[in-house]
């Protein structure tokens, strides 16, 4: 099974990284991979995540180091900090930190030793959370995770825990036992220790059946994605989802399209309640309505008949002081502002250098004169006229001199402060985004 997967998924000399916990599952996978290295040319290294949650954590890391040394393998140990009162819970926080380590690995694939019983447990957990087909698909064999530098391969999904134990004993392998696996306060442990044994008593082979059901759900999820792609052809253009197209679909089909739109733009999928609320507001709003729905860390806006996903940025209200720099980061706007020197263009250099220049974002009540002899118009009205989306307005870079607004990105600059022909000027412009 592992050999076939290697041939199917990876070219010769691929760099593979095994997530090694020291438990029997990952120890068996390490042993199998070592046996295949002569037959399949690949590079192998290991990574161990030290969660620090157990009194035995140091001993487990030492065991993994000794095991890898005996095989001549490089091992990297990553120590992570997990607060017992983390809002995600201990299990969730450990998973988050572990995946953060895995996402940043410099490798061609991350390998984990998830097996058939893990798949059955994951399906039940997702079912009890009320998940749809994507959640019920549980774990894929080869998964390309958004934000990860390499795919995630689970070569043992078709193998049972019992088979792994038989293999380990037959080859006289040593491994560590995590005593927390017996703690039924954790949901997965409760399923493993109490629920699944009872199910297997009354329904022999329940683990295999549940794993097979996860595979069928994966097929269904793929078909739903295919349908969403067909609907998206007419409904999605770049960052915009057309609300009229959404309204023309049945509710289940519209929900599927909205879920696809969110996922394709790299935003975490909201829970069912948030998704239904967002869909209801998008469908029920007037054509000219402006709607903003919170999806956790992100917002979904309806604006001018379209829906847009916007990551909610941190608010930085304080402007920054310009002291002659050619480029200055403006955290409130999330960008760097450059001031390019020129002649007969931009704002008068002499005015800027003689005054107190600050850069920031809207505070409210700003006014700007765009034409000589014209009125000072409110920035609010200018933003509406230029169709600047609402979620961009509070992060629009602005420049003041002695408290007077002289420049607004994408809008213009004060006509009275413009450099005359032959006069040295500084032209503000938006530069690189800040990380």
Walk me through this protein's architecture:
The chain is an alpha+beta fold and 435 residues long. It has 3 domains: 212 residues, 3-Layer(aba) Sandwich (Rossmann fold); 65 residues, no CATH class; 114 residues, no CATH class. It has 15 helices and 22 strands. The protein has a 6-stranded mixed beta sheet with strand order 3-2-1-4-6-5, sandwiched between helices. Strands 7-8-11-10-9 form a 5-stranded antiparallel beta sheet. Helix 5 packs across helix 8 and helix 5 packs across helix 9.
Q: What features would you highlight for this structure?
A:
435 residues; alpha+beta; Rossmann fold; six-stranded mixed sheet; five-stranded antiparallel sheet; 22 strands
């Amino acid at each position: 099974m592992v050999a076939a997967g290697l041939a199917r998924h990876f070219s010769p000399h691929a760099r593979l990284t095994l997530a090694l916990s020291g438990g029997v599952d990952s120890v068996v996978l390490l042993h199998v991979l070592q046996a295949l290295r002569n037959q399949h040319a690949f590079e192998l290294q290991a990574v161990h995540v030290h969660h620090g949650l157990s009194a035995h954590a140091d001993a487990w890391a030492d065991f993994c180091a000794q095991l890898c040394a005996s095989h001549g393998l490089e091992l990297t140990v990553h120590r992570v900090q997990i607060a017992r009162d983390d809002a995600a819970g201990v299990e969730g926080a450990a998973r988050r930190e572990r995946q953060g380590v895995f996402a940043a690995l410099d490798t061609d694939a991350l390998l984990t030793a998830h097996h058939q019983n893990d798949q059955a447990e994951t399906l039940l957990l997702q079912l009890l959370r009320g998940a749809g087909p994507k959640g019920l698909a549980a774990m894929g064999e080869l998964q390309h995770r958004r934000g990860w530098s390499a795919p995630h391969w689970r070569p043992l999904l078709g193998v049972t825990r019992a088979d792994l134990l038989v293999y380990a004993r037959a080859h006289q392998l040593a491994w560590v036992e995590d005593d927390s696996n017996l703690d039924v306060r954790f949901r997965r442990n409760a399923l493993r220790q109490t629920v699944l044994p009872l199910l297997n008593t009354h329904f022999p082979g329940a683990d295999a059946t549940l794993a097979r059901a996860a595979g069928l759900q994966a097929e269904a999820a793929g078909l739903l994605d295919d349908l969403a792609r067909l609907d998206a052809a007419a409904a999605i253009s770049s960052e915009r989802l057309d609300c009229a197209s959404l309204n023309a679909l049945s509710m289940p089909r519209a929900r599927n399209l909205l879920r696809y739109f969110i996922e394709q733009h790299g935003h975490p999928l909201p829970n069912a309640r948030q998704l239904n609320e967002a869909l209801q507001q998008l469908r029920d709003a007037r054509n000219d309505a402006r709607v903003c729905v919170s999806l956790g860390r992100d917002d979904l806006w309806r604006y001018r008949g379209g829906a847009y996903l916007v990551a909610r940025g941190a608010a930085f209200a304080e402007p920054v002081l310009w002291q002659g720099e050619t480029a200055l980061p403006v955290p409130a706007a999330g960008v760097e502002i450059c001031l390019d020197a020129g002649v007969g263009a931009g704002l008068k250099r002499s005015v800027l250098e003689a005054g107190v220049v600050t850069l920031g974002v809207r505070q409210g009540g700003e006014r700007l004169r765009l034409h000589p002899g014209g009125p000072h118009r409110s920035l609010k009205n200018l933003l509406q006229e230029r169709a600047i989306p609402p979620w961009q307005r509070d992060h629009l870079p602005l420049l003041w001199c002695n408290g007077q607004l002289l420049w607004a990105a994408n809008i213009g600059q004060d006509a009275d402060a413009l450099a005359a022909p032959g006069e040295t000027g500084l032209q503000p412009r938006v530069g690189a985004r800040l990380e």
